[in-house]
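# nightly structure sweep
# worker-07 picked up a monomer target from the shared queue
# config: single-sequence mode, recycle default, output format = structure tokens
# input follows
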Amino acid sequence: MNRRFVMASVSLGLAAVSTASADFTGQPLLGPLTNGSVVDGTTAGKSDDNDGFDSGTHIFFIWDGGDDVYTLDWLGGDMTVTLTNSPGGVDNDLFIYRPGSLDSTGDYSIRDPSVPDVVTILNAGPGTYYINVDTTFFTEGGYQLSVTPAPSSGLVLAAGLVFGARRRRR
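# output follows
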């Protein structure tokens, strides 16, 4: 076997294993969103600048429909981003890229379209995050995107204790 061919094959194999980086250069960026933002949008009629996990590239060719990218200026702390699709066959998916880590290991939700996509990042550091709302061709459409502080584990525990205490009294 040709040594040059073997080296090229090994190089290509390593490239396929490495993580792709997002690149939002040259595409419209919406926002910036902040804590408490709620926006309505649509992927219908939008350009296909992204491919889900590997934004800015088309490695998978799965998310071949329109997409929107928002910037989120986060001050730090627990965050929850929720994407709710409009009814009627719309299937947008949610991808979040953290500051300084614009790669395909990002946080995402690609649930059934009848259930909101939700991504919670605990102890999210301050900085600019990118939120990619991406879809597959023929499933583009309307959505609502919201950014809220994630309930802390203490609040969730307290709510459970209050609910449990109310049940026992009855």
